[in-house]
Amino acid sequence: MILVEEPGLFTTVQDLGRPGFGPIGVSAAGAADVVALRVGNRMVGNPEGAAALEMTLSGGTFLFPNGGMAALAGSDFGAAMDHLPAPVWQTFEIPRGGRVRVGQTRSGARCYLCVRGGIDVPLVLGSASTHVLCGLGGFQGRTLRKGDVLRIGKAGIEYRARAGGLPDALQPRKTLRCTGAPQTGWFSETDRGLFHNSIYRVTEDANRAGLRLEGPVITAPAGGHMTTAGAPLGAIQVPASGQPIILFVEQQTTGGYPEIASIITADISSVGQLRPRDEVRFECVDLATARDLLRKQEEAIRAVH
Amino acid sequence: MAHLEATIQPASDQALLVSFGERITPEASARVRCLLHLLLRDPLPAVTNLHPAYCSLLIRFDALVADHEELENRVRPLLSVLDEVALGSPREVEIPVCYGGEFGVDLADVADTHGITPGQAIDLHSSATYTVDFLGFAPGFAYLSGLPTELATPRLASPRRRVPAGSVGIAGHQTGVYPFATAGGWRLIGRTPLSMFRADREPMSVLAIGDRVRFRPIRAEEFNA
Q1: Cβ contact (<8 Å) for A21 and B135?
Q2: Residue A150 and residue A54 in one domain
Q3: Domain co-membership, B206 together with B131
Q4: Chain B residues in contact with A227 (beta carbon < 8 A)
Q5: Do residue A228 and residue B48 have CB atoms under 8 angstroms apart?
Q6: Under a CB-based contact definition with an 8 Å cutoff, are residues A164 and A176 in contact?
Q7: Is some CB atom of chain A closer than 8 A to the CB atom of B58?
């Protein structure tokens, strides 16, 4: 079991998400950086989709009364296990009564504590993911608090302790690749050019539901309104203000602002590592390239052992 | 329904958008519901999620397993049989609402806009029967059509940072209930004591697509009971 001594800024239980409930307005949720979660789980011999703790910007302190085996994945939050440093992308053993302290981010927005056996919470509609807005899944449907006690699941397959970084091919990116969206053609060529040739900065208004950006103002077509339609994960909306919004893992399932582009699936994990004030660019690719990049990412994840 | 030609286009590298025009009409909405019904009854391989809206349906799929063309080829044949889909009779749902005062801070403004009294606005809102066109925006948030035109009022110029859970609002020709305390720009005319969405209940959402909805005025005492 794990006793939460300090929860951190915004820590939730996440797995690969709960797709399939769009018809009742519930987005899939799931890890903000799926690549980190999957690789982290592989490192402790878990199935890739095992539930882990997702920490945001600042981590917590976790006591393991019965010990365990864990790995930190994602951004470097400067962690320690008792008095030893616990670098990201390394498997480490936790003795009985051992304590994992996770600090403040030194790189991106999210760090995962993957524990061998996974975090054992009741599955809700087939998933352990926390959907914070509607209080669904995870640990009591909410972010962790001081004093929470989490159970660790039964360990499955054998593992090989691993030390080393994340392969270059899987590093989070600041240039996000996009394909067209249904309303891309509504935007003038000038505005599309402006969008793809400018730097946008992530504002403080960035969370699992979406990230508001600021930068050169794009003229929103049709006054920034359209008939509300289903919006994909990674859709980049442009409301009347002309400042783009990225829809993220706990997104609204539909939206009424025209979309200028959609971030490719392979780069969604990179969005999960963006912090307020980070600067991003958007590069246009076609669907065939997007598919190819996703396949390559998949191969790179499977090559980690 | 032949005039409602469907268009199918990529919405992202893992999503396809099927649209039945751009206009909000009962016909377009019926087509969305029929297609949704078919896709829920006989799920297509690789499809992971469905996001219905007024006149479109977003189909999410696993891009490692299928591509847009493959999926489009599987969806196209369904479009020609939509007319044969029988959706069954809709459920009827009644939602108690305490109108005005602290529960509906914009009721007086809405009534003023239309030159009617708040009481008349309540009568109008609670005597109509609405249809759930789809759920979106937030879990359990139903977009209801059927608002009497005498009540149609534009959104607030600037959204409120926090709208209390259960708030009943008006935006243009739509009305709806906020299941959670979220930011929102709809004009608030009342509030329901019902929990519109609860994760620990089956079904989680009070409303489902296609439901027929009526609002029943209640007093503050009943709201607080």
Answers
A1: no
A2: yes
A3: yes
A4: 22-24, 53-56
A5: no
A6: no
A7: yes
When pLDDT is cut at 50, 70 and 90, the band that residue B1 belongs to is very low
In the prediction, which pLDDT does A162 show? 62
DSSP string, B119-139: HHHHHHHHHS-EEEEEE-SST
Please tell me which residue of chain A has the smallest CA distance to B195: A134
Domain interval for residue B138:
92-224
| CATH number reported for the structural domain that contains residue B166 in this entry | 2.40.100.10
The pLDDT tens digits for A182-229 are: 999 999 999 999 999 999 999 999 999 999 999 999 999 888 778 899
Place of tokens 């909306």: A237
Q: Looking at the predicted structure, is the pLDDT value of residue B3 above 60?
A: no
pLDDT value, residue A159: 63
Residue A175 and residue A140 share a domain: no
- Whether residues B15 and A133 touch (CB distance < 8 A) is answered with no
- Nearest by CB to B135, from A25, A181, A290: name it: A25
Give whole-number Cα distances, B44 to B12, B48, B63, B178, B195, in Å. 18, 9, 13, 32, 33
Look at residue A222 in the predicted model and tell me its pLDDT. 83
For the question of whether the overall pTM of this predicted structure is more than 0.90, the answer is: yes
d(CA B30, CA B217): 29
Q: What percent of chain A is modeled with pLDDT above 90? A: 88
Chain B touched by A254 (CB under 8 Å): yes
- What CA–CA distance (Å, rounded) separates A109 from B96? 43
| B218 lies in the same domain as B144 | yes
**Is 90 exceeded by the pLDDT of residue B47?**
yes
The verdict on B60 touching A (C-beta cutoff 8 Å) is yes
Chain B (34-53) residues lying within 8 Å, Cβ to Cβ, of chain A: 36, 40, 48-53
Prediction ipTM score:
0.95
Q: pLDDT tens digits for A153-176?
A: 988 766 665 656 788 999 999 999
- Chain A within 8 Å of B78 (Cβ-Cβ)? no
For residue A180, list chain B residues with Cβ-Cβ distance below 8 A: 10
Q: Which of B53, B68, B182 sits opposite A229 (nearest CB)?
A: B53
Strand partners, B15: B12, B60
Residue A193: domain span: 170-302
Among residues B183, B168, B182, B161, the alpha carbon closest in space to that of B218 is found at B168
Q: Which of A104, A134, A166 is the last residue of a domain?
A: A166
- B66 & B16 share domain: yes
Which residues lie closer than 8 Å to A259 by C-beta, 6 or more apart? A181, A182, A183, A184, A231, A235, A236, A237, A238, B11
Closest Cα in chain B, distance from residue A230 (Å): 5
**Within this chain, do residues A127 and A49 fall inside the same structural domain, yes or no?**
yes
User: How many domains does chain B contain in total?
Assistant: 2
- CB of B15 within 8 Å of any CB in chain A? yes
